[in-house]
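Example (one chain per record):
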Amino acid sequence: MNKSVLVSILVIIVALGAFFMFQQEPQPRDLVVYSGRSKALVDAAVEKFKADTGINVEVKYGGSTQLAVAIIEEGAQSPADLFWSQDAGALGAVNKAGLLKQLPSDLTNSLPETFRNNNGSWVATTARARVLAYSPERLAVEDFPASVTDLTNEKYRNRVAWAPTNASFQSFVSALILEFGVDATREWLVGVRDNGAKNFANNNAILQGIAAGEADLGITNHYYLLRTKAENPSFPVEQTVFASGDIGNMVNVAGIGQLSSSDNPAAIQFIEFLLSEETQLWFTQQVFEYPVIELDVANLPTNQIMETAPVINLEELDDLDQTLQLLREVGLL
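Predicted structure:
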């Protein structure tokens, strides 16, 4: 074999080796996220991730409960890489079905135990508190209910607003079941319903209903009013908490987990992005939720909120079927 032929063969071998090495490297591909978080709240963060990384993100928005049910039905065939839930209960249901994979320990261990589940398959991205929104013109301080269970009282007849189809409310009902049992929770739901509670589509609608005089008080998540007040400081609604430790003050989390069927490396990048100081600060200042990492932010009442919150194992709020069945049984779904 002459020298030129040998050189040509070596060049071909090197080129083929480089080609196959290149082919074996993981190539960036679209990241598919099922998001129970509304587009209005998180779209800006998604767009920032896309701009920073060059990775395209396809987001399927919907209710957290409905998306959890869809993922469980899809099983290993789900096109989703990540499930970003509005509440821990929906994440717990997907995890209970064995459809979330364990996240890297350096990622999960960077958070307090309160903000990650026991087996490391999901982490919290932000926290929020349940509060009592009210009309200061029509509800005097001395008439504030001490407990959310007091909303069955005659003095609140035809005055209460709630959102039974909302995922946050449903997670709250799961917490009631965990705290008091199914029978007591059924009794409370029926009591509030029969006391003339008015159904609204979501937390924002509750606030608008109180402002319009359709209700005098309602149970919502804390950040909706803060966002509204940032745009309209004279908005005629205020909010408060129930007595310390009351189940009505529960602190829930939005959280995220990677599906077991996903091998997309961009999934972990997205979670790390959500937990970065920059993104956590954005959620704190723009969405008015509470961060899950330590931030040096003035006047952030996270500690005060946690002090009034009941002790709840969020991972145990995973029986969606039981909660939905109960809500259907009492005619709220």
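Caption: The first strand starts at residue 31 and ends at 35.
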